[in-house]
Amino acid sequence: MPLEQAGERPGSGSSSITAARLGEHEGYERVVLDLEGAPGQVAGWYATAVPQPVQDASGELLDVKGGRFLNLNVTGIANGSDGGVDSAGRAAFTGTIDGSGDLVDQIYVGGAWEGQAQVLLGLDESVSEYRVLALSDPQRIVVDVR
Length: 146
Description:
Strand content: over 45%
Number of strands: 10
Largest sheet: 6 strands, antiparallel
CATH architecture: Sandwich
Helix content: under 10%
Structural class: mainly beta
Radius of gyration: 14 Å
CATH class: Mainly Beta
CATH topology: Immunoglobulin-like
Shape: globular
């Protein structure tokens, strides 16, 4: 879908983001958020392009590399993740991952609050499209950009 268009998929449960990774493919790059949760739970998402990388709750400007930004809120997430352990007792990932610089410049994964986690993708100015998939077995959120 065009980067300017918002998209969403409802989720349920209380999963945790345990890792984030980036893969390069011909014509696109893929961001994968690995999730862990109880069987049958499926995290959801809401994605929208934003003019600058701003932290959801505070409105504070974040230092995320990129010329364009895709804000992805992952829903159905256990609260209390500060880069350590979440409210479900699972290790949860927060932090940044540098990208290739071709399409994805940086991935920012924030802590969980109110059942969601903010993920910001710092993108190259040339990125015009994205798609988000919620996959299971194992549970993960996949974002393709091109």
